[in-house]
Amino acid sequence: MLKNKVVVVGVTGSIAAYKSAQLVSDLVKEGCEVHVIMTENAVNFINPITFETLTGRKCLVDTFDRNFEYSVTHVSLSQKADVFMIAPASANIIGKIANGIADDMLSTMVMAAKCPVLIAPAMNKYMFMNTIVQENIEKLKRHDYRIISPAVGRLACNDTGVGKLPDVDVLIEHIKHEIAHEKDYKGLKVLITAGPTQESLDPVRYITNHSSGKMGYAIAQAASERGAEVVLVSGEVSIKPPIFAECINVKSAEEMFNAVAENLSDSDVVIMAAAVADYTPDSYSDNKIKKSDGDMSISLKRTKDILKYAGEHKADGQIICGFSMETENLVENSRQKLEKKNCDMIAANSIKQSGAGFKTDTNVITLITEDDIKELPLMSKYDAANNILDELMKLKKI
Questions:
Q1: 178 and 36 in contact (C-beta within 8 Å)?
Q2: What is the dihedral of CA 234, 235, 239, 240, to 10 degrees?
Q3: Within a domain: residue 376?
C-alpha cells in the first residue's frame, strides 16, 4: 500500500530520535523511497550514517551542502514527496514552522512542501503543555498541518505524563491514512461489524464461534484509509482496532444489535462481517442445565437477526453487504441470503477452502450481487477488503 511512495522524514533534537531509525527502516521495508532531513541538534542524538545506511541516500543536514545531486534540492524533494513527517518534532521546530521561519534545511523544506505534513511532537510534559507551544500547535492545525498527539508514559527526564513520541506502528498508520489510497470514500459513513459474539450460559461458560475479527478489521482499516468515517462494532478479539475508526466494543448479539440499530440510519454503507452466535439461553435467570451421564441440555432461543433488521430498515441510497460462510452450495445459499435479507451484496466463502475462513490472514471470497458473481483469488484479507469496497462503491454510484 506504500510501495513506491516518497516519504520525507524530518528528525529534530530529541532523545526520541532513536525511534526514527526504526520508523525509517519500516518504511523502507514497506517499499517507500525514504529521504531523511536532520537538524544540527538531531545529530547530537543519532548519527546521520544510520539513516544513510537504512535508506541508501544521503541524509541532509546543511542547507548549503553541495555534496549531493543537484536534483535533490529543498524545493524539488519537497514537491516530489507524497508525505512529510517530522518525528520527533521539538518545540523549536514547531515554533519555527508556526511562525514561518525557514533558517535550516528542515524548516526550509517544510515551507516548500506541497504534500501533507505530519508533525509528531516529543518533549518534556511541561514543555509540551506550555501555552506558547500549545498556541503554535493550534496555529499549525489551522494551516492544515496534521498533528499526531504524543503518547502518555514515562519520559526520558524521568517524569511521567504526555510528551512521548508514539510507537512506530502508530506513526506508520498515520502515514498510511494520508497516502495509502485515494479518498474515494470521503464524506461517507461506513458501519462495520466484526468478530464473534458471546452468549453466556452461566457465569463461567458461553456460546461463541471461531471468528478472529480479522476480516472485519481489515475492512475498517481499508475504509478509513480511503477517507470514510468508520464505526466498527466489534465482539471481543485480540487485535487492535484501526486508530482512525470509532470502535464500539460489545459481547452479546443483543449488544451488537443495539449498536447497529443506533448507527444504522445515518450510515451510507453497512458491512456485516461479524460472526454472530445463533443462539442464546432462553432465560438466563431461570437457566437450568440438565446433566445425565455426562450429557448436558439447555433451553435456547435464536438471537436477533442483525443483517435482516438492517435490510428491513434500509434507507434510500444505503448499501448493505452481508457475509456468508458456507460448507456447500456457496453461490445458491448466498443468493438466497441476498434476497431474504434485502442486501445489495454478499461476500461469501467456503470454510472448507484452504486459506479462507476464520483466523487466517488470507481469504478466498466470492462477491455476489443481484446481477453478477465475482470470484476473487486467494489474497490477504486487507486486499480482499479493498476489493469489497471497490464493488460497493460501484453499487453506490449506480
A1: no
A2: 40
A3: yes
Which amino acid type is present at position 42? A
Q: Omega of the bond prior to 88 within 30 degrees of 0, cis?
A: yes
Active site amino acids: 157
pLDDT tens-place string over residues 291-315: 555 566 778 888 999 999 999 999 9
Which has the higher per-residue pLDDT, 256 or 204? 256
As a whole number of angstroms, the distance between CA 8 and CA 11 comes to 10
Alpha helix (H) ranges present in the chain?
A: 17-29, 48-55, 74-80, 91-98, 105-112, 125-129, 131-142, 168-179, 214-225, 253-264, 306-312, 330-340, 381-397
Read off the DSSP letter of residue 59.
P
pLDDT, mean of residues 31-56 = 96
| CA 3/CA 196 separation, integer angstroms | 33
231 grid coordinates: 464505526
Q: Does 184 map to a domain?
A: no
User: Is residue 42 scored above 90 in pLDDT?
Assistant: yes
Are 77 and 125 in a shared domain? yes
How far is it, in rounded angstroms, from Cα 388 to Cα 298? 39
Task: In whole angstroms, give the CA distance from residue 42 to residue 108.
Answer: 16
Q: How far apart are the first and last CA of the chain?
A: 27
204 shares a domain with 136: no
- Look up residue 16 and give its three cell numbers: 526520541
Range of the domain at 84: 6-179
CB 190 within 8 A of CB 268: yes
What is the rounded CA–CA span in Å between residue 54 and residue 12? 18
Q: How many domains is the chain partitioned into structurally?
A: 2
Give backbone dihedrals phi and psi of 160, rounded to 5 degrees, phi first.
-120, 130
